Amino acid sequence: MATTPHSMMAKTSVGVMGLGEVGRVIAEGFSGNGFNVSGWSHTRKGIPNVSCFGATELEHFLPRCQVLINCLPLTPVTEGILERQLFAQLPQGAVLINVGRGPHLVEADLLSALASGQLSAAALDVFSQEPLPVSHPFWQHPDILITPHCASLTDINAVAAQIIENYHALMNNQPLKHLIDRQRGY
């Protein structure tokens, strides 16, 4: 029996690290298209059709991820999280997609994981140094796809509406929305 795109999607496990505004939409999108989706975040979330894991469950989350998508915020805890030990917990031949922040990735560890076959490919939208220097080894690597920091585009109308809504809330002594928790870093 021939393999169909739908049966391939159902057999492909996608893991999303970071289930905030962006990660949640990504997890729901993959799940809605028939993929087996898991998500990992600081606090365990409840997302329909997504197996969710909390901060202390990373070792249970990673082995499920044939495709790992990083959407984490950059904090002292998450800086350098995409490194050798994390890659070793993924299934052999997994794919990494980083749309979070460049400093999440330990670049030398990615190159080693690709060379060993632990990872089969990586798609990178963000880098520790942007623009990525012309001489950087990622440009010539056959298993790395580079995109120009465009994975998420801001809808100016939505942002303007949020600013206006928060302005009115502030003027009326009401709670503001979308505040950053400075202790958590996001």
Give the tags.
29% helix, alpha/beta, seven-stranded parallel sheet, 186 residues, 17% strand
Shape: globular
| Beta fraction | 15-25%
Computed over alpha carbons, the radius of gyration is: 18 Å
What characterizes the major β-sheet? 7 strands, parallel
Query: How far from one another are the termini?
Result: 48 Å
Category from helices, strands and their pairing: alpha/beta
- What is the mean pLDDT? 93
Order of helices and strands: HEHEEHEHEHEEH
Q: Percentage of helical residues? A: 25-40%
Task: Extract low-pLDDT stretches.
Answer: none
Count up the helices. Answer: 6
Q: Give the beta-strand count.
A: 7
Q: For the largest beta sheet, what order do the strands appear in spatially?
A: 3-2-1-4-5-6-7
Structure description:
The protein has 186 residues and is of the alpha/beta class. The chain has helices at 5-11, 21-32, 58-61, 84-88, 107-116, 156-171, and strands at residues 13-17, 36-40, 50-53, 67-70, 94-98, 119-124, 144-146.
At a glance:
With 186 residues, the protein is of the alpha/beta class. Helices cover 29% and strands 17% of the residues.
